[in-house]
Specification:
Layout (H helix, E strand, L loop, with lengths): L2 E2 L4 H4 L32 H14 L7 H7 L19 E4 L3 E5 H12 L10 E4 L10 H11 L1 H14 L2 E3 L6 H8 L6 E4 L13 E4 L2 H8 L4 E4 L2 E8 L8 H12 L7 E6 L1 H4 L3 H9 L8 E3 L4 H9 L3 H12 L13 E6 L6 E3 L7 E3 H11 L7 E4 L7 H16 L8 E3 L4 H9 L2 H6 L3 E3 L19 E5 L15 E5 L2 H8 L13 E2 L5 E2 L65 E8 L4 H4 L12 H4 L8 E2 L8 E4 L6 E4 L1 H10 L4 E5 L11 H8 L2 E6 L4 H9 L3 E5 L13 E5 L1 H5 L7 E6 L6 E6 L4 H9 L2 H17 L1
Parallel strand pairs: 3-4, 3-6, 4-5, 6-7, 9-10, 9-12, 10-11, 15-16, 15-18, 16-17, 18-19, 22-26, 26-27, 27-28
Antiparallel strand pairs: 1-12, 2-8, 13-14, 20-21, 22-23, 22-29, 24-25, 28-31, 29-30, 30-31
Helix pairs in contact: 4-6, 4-8, 9-11, 12-13, 15-18, 22-23, 25-26
Length: 804
Amino acid sequence: MHRVLRRQGAVLGTSSKPQRSQTSRSFASFTPLTEKDCTSITPPYAVLQQRLKRISEILNHRPLTLAEKILYSHIHNPETCANEGIVRGHTYLQLSPERVAMQDASAQMALLQFMSADLPTCAVPTSIHCDHLIQAIDGAESDLERSIVSNKEVFDFLESAARKYGIEFWRPGSGIIHQIVLENYAAPGMLMLGTDSHTPNAGGLGMLAIGVGGADAVDAMTGTPWELKAPLITGVHLTGKLNGWTTTKDLILHLAGKLTVKGGTGRILEYFGPGVESESCTGLATIANMGAEVGATTSTFPYTDGMRAYLHATGRGPVARAADEAQASGFLRADAGAEYDEVIDVNLSELEPSINGPFTPDLATPLSHFAKVVQENGWKDEISAGLIGSCTNSSYEDMTRAVDIARQAKAAGLSTKIPFLCTPGSEQIRATMERDHLTDALEEVGAVVLANACGPCIGQRGTESTDENAILTSFNRNFRSRNDGNRNTMNFLASPTVVTAMAFSGKLSFDPQRDSLKTPDGQMFKFTPPKGEELPASGFTYGRLEYYPSPSPQPQPDTQITISPTSQRLQLLEPFKSPFDDNSRSELPRMTVLMRVRGKCTTDHISAAGPWLKYKGHLQNISENLLITAVNDEGGEVNVAQDYDQETGKSTTDTIPRIAQRFKARGEPWALVVDENYGEGSAREHAALQPRFYGCLMIVARSFARIHETNLKKQGILPLWFADKADYARVGAGDTIETVGLEALLKGDSSARIGLKVTPREGEAFEILTNHTMSKDQIKWLQAGSALNKIKNDSKAASMQVNS
């Protein structure tokens, strides 16, 4: 793999007519679902292309990448770009997404914010998916029943809000949000937002699906233009064809190892070349899903035969036919000669399976070298559990590959050596697996099939053990404590086929490409590379229809949404107070540094999931997990902070949340100093809401992850970047900070530099320089105290103007 700046014309040629790839596949016959009414999910291609035509004129008809075409065709008002054009990596775009999807954990806070806007319905089609709050303990049926009872208050709230505002409500058991979106809503050329970092999964259908916080989703739901800095575009040129044990999961694991967890920040990954056409739609979705692990804004692909087949198979023939027409006009592919900011070349034929981890998704090791790595690190050569599924790898194709392995093993008389857990991606997948006897094949070798939900991937599989152990999963994320609450559990990421095969060995050192297993009769058995079915020959089956929503429901404004004032699960939001409310202040108030955070600090560190998921709708309760797994750089301890009370001069050690509570109680504004790529991982906006709730007004970082930085801005926290990263070590807990030069920024000069005057607890004051990424609109959020405050203020002003 190497990187060069290159025009796509060097690969695609100069013909303006759509070219059928030489690697186009013929598909086995399959029976599609009955065609659905696709009115609400078919992009308005004529409108989008007309808008893009105007943008093209503004940009002097320069060739555009596919990502640019989709993004720019959704600009709210193209004329706003007429004067300065669009500069990738610099220009802020005002966009009009076509759809919003929310999972149950993040939907609670998003809906609480939306309710405060006092609107009768959502401005765009919106859906809620109950998937995060379902535990993974015993098996599908009992886990689902238990979770529905224990989360009844939250599910009732979500369902009543959905009914009131005309939102499609996917009930518990329906499946994982991203698989459902791919099966039902995704369409080539669409722009959608989702309140989950793995929303880009839908990019497998040739669209732009972007993970955001709830406040960003509220922008789209209220019809407010959504703001995004025009991303840089990284082209990933694929040649060759995957073979043997290698899958699309291995491609993205390989890329994660090359790009690292922040290599895609501020970028869209756009895949092109003959290798794209050789992969299935759901395989491409796996690649797009894990683009989140390199920090990419999203990932996308040109419209392929595989996408067309998948649309027909899932009852969306009208979308496929409309996309065919759009493709014929050149909309769903990059222009010949389009320039990427960077191009990465990958020959799929040369890839081998990869295992990534532990504790970070970008630590990639080729499977053939992994046994040596196990030995060199002194890890126990054993696996405590194997888990397949999750939103990354739970398609029919993934499951049929795993079943191929299971059937080979059964024929040899083998069963799994370790707990082996399987999560279907949706009720449609589960029902189709059951009909086609895939579930039987897995259970016959020892697998436990879990509910159609996120389950262990999001931490809904707890353990009381604190011992070091290794699990092997086909998940997408493997941070400490994420999957079972044990910070010593090493989660290694791999494809479902590798996980399944290794479950029959129980050893980390086992390489199914080369190694053999002893059968009960003493013979040596070696797996052959598995094969899967891209689409079921008998078509998909819906399964239990009671899990599904009514399509395009009408709002029922008389629906009552009741939140008990004594509820421990839900809490109405109080607006955050602006530090500029009295109009006399031109700088942020003097702030005390609560702590300096060391190293990797993901949104899992800032706002843990697992048992805390039940408090996602109650800001006060969930704030008690603030930074509880973060490392204090001044001492190296986890969840330890100091309160240098300025009045008494005494220092008190306590947990991080309790120190933050003290600051809040005495009305003392505070700040954080943090390390590289702060806030990587999940899109959870609670990681911004919680520090704001306790009184944080500013976070200064060596660098930020994209979604988290935006979430901080939305909640009225000023994110600043150290101009000199060495200054990180100069600012510590108990120091006070004052902004210098913020006044110019507040007056509309978005190019203004902001300095910080730092007064140490001991020693002379000094100043440091910072950088920022605040746009003009984001500055207004800061002034108002939050983006939601700004929306409400604008609404009030408009209402007063109408009434005057």
